[in-house]
## 1
Amino acid sequence: MIKVFYGKKGTGKTKHMLESANSVAKETNGAVVYIDDSNELLVKLSHKIRFINILDYPVFGSDAFLGFICGVVSQNYDIETIFIDGLTYIVHQDVESLKKFFDGIAKISAEHNADFYISINGDEETMPSFIRAYT
C-alpha cells in the first residue's frame, strides 16, 4: 500500500504523518521506519520507530534514494511500514520527475509487503496523475 499526503506547505501533512507513524508503531509487530531531512521530529516519534535523517547519508536524487530504500528493506525483512516526510525536499527533484521512483516503491511494496506513507509539498491542482492514484 502506498498513501501520499499531498498539499501546500503548512497544511498539516507532517503532523498527520507523525500521528500515523506513532499509531502504526503501537499496533504493529513489525518494524516502522521514518525518513526525514532533519532531526526535528525525533523527540516526537515513538521509540519503537527507526528514525533516519537522510542528510546523514550521501544520497542525491530519486534513483539514489530508491536504492537507499532498497537497502533499508533488504537489511531488515521485518519492515512493515516506511514513512517518507517531504519527498521532493529529500530528492531535490520536481514531483513530475518521480514516476520511475513511484514505480519502484510500488514494486517494493508489493514484493515485500511494506506500506509506504509519503508526504509531498505541492499544489493539488497540478498533482501528476501517477500520484493521484495514491492520495
## 2
Amino acid sequence: MFGYPKNTIGEVVFTTGMVGYPQSLTDPSYRGQILMFTYPLIGNYGVPDKGLYENGIPVYFESNQIQVQGVIVYEHCKTPSHWASIKSLNECLV
C-alpha cells in the first residue's frame, strides 16, 4: 500500500519540472489535482523537515501543506537515503 487509501476525483496533470517532489506536492498551483510524476522512481531521498527561513518562508516546501488531491507514480522508494530525510514519502502522504 502506498499513500492514503481513499477514492478521489480530480484532473490528472503531469509534472516534468526540475524541482523535487516535496515542492511539487506542496505547490498551490496543483491544488485539487492528481499529480502524475514522469520520473520513474519517486521517494528515494525522503521528505525533509519543515524548516523555515527567518521570514517564515518554508525552506524545502512551496506551502505549509500538501496541495494535491492524489499522486500517481510508477514506483516509489520505501527506504529513502538522504541525510536531511526525516520520513518517507509514504509517511508524508498518510
## 3
Amino acid sequence: MRQTLRAPRFLALLMAAGAVTLGACGFQLRGTTAIPFKTLYIGVADTSPIAVSLRRSIRDNGPTRIVTDATQAEAKLEIQHESVTSDIQTINSLGLATEYNLYYHIQFRVVSNKGRIYIPPVQLTLTRLILSNNNAVLAENNQINNLVADMQADAVQQILRRIEAIKPEQ
C-alpha cells in the first residue's frame, strides 16, 4: 500500500522540479504580439493566404485595427514579393528525384503613413526537405500544400515579431 502512495508524491516532486528548471533557464511560452500601431494596412491581395494569416493573427492578438485604405493607416505592411520554389537534392538510379528542398520566399517592408521606413525591405526564406515517393503523387502534393501552409505560418510569426519591435514616432 505504501508503494502506491510514494509514486504520486515522487511524480509530483519530479514535475515541480521540472517546472523550476524550465523557469530558471528562461523558457516561456510565446505570448501574444503587441503591434505598436492602432491601425495597419496590409498591402497584398485580400485572397492571399499570407494576408489571411496576417489579418487573423493581428486581430487575435490585440487592439490593432486593420484598415482597407492605406491613407487611414498609421503604418503599411507591404508584401513586395512572395514565391514558392524547389530544387532537387538527390536522384535515384532511374533519374527520378527522391529528395528536394521546398523554399518559401517572402519580401516585405513596413513604412509609416508619413513615409518613414520602419523596416526596410527584408527577404525571409524558409526551407523544408521533402522525401519524394513517386508511387504516391497525391500524398506528396498534399504534403507540399501542408508544408507551404506551415512555412507561411512561420513567416507570419517572424513578420509580426519584427513589427512588434518597431518604436513608432510619438
## 4
Amino acid sequence: MSERFDAGVECCEESVVHSDLVSLVREKLPAENDMQDLAELFKIFGDTTRIRILFVLFEAEVCVCDLAETLGMTQSAISHQLKILKASGLVRARRKGKSVFYSLADAHVRTIMAQGWEHINEET
C-alpha cells in the first residue's frame, strides 16, 4: 500500500531516485526565466473578464464599444483589460477611422483558447 500525503497524493513506498530519468529530464527542462515567462502568460488567463474578452475575439474582430455592449461592462473596464492583453501579446489593435478594432494576436492564442475549452469539457 502506498503512503499518502495530506493532500491525498500517492507517493512511492520507498525512496528510490532513478538517476537516468532525472538526468534526461533535467537536460530537457527550459531555462528558469523561460518557465517564469510562461507562468506569467498563464496568469493573464487567470482573470474571468479577460477570458470573456478573448472568447468574444475568438468569434470576431470588434471595437471597444462592441465589447462593452456584448459583455455588459464599461468601456473603461474593457480598455483596462485590453491594455493587459495587448501588452502580453494576446490581442492586437487596428485603427479604422475613429474606431479601434481588436482581434486575437495570432493562431497560437486561438489554439490556447480552443485547447483549454476542450480540456475543461472533456469527459473524465
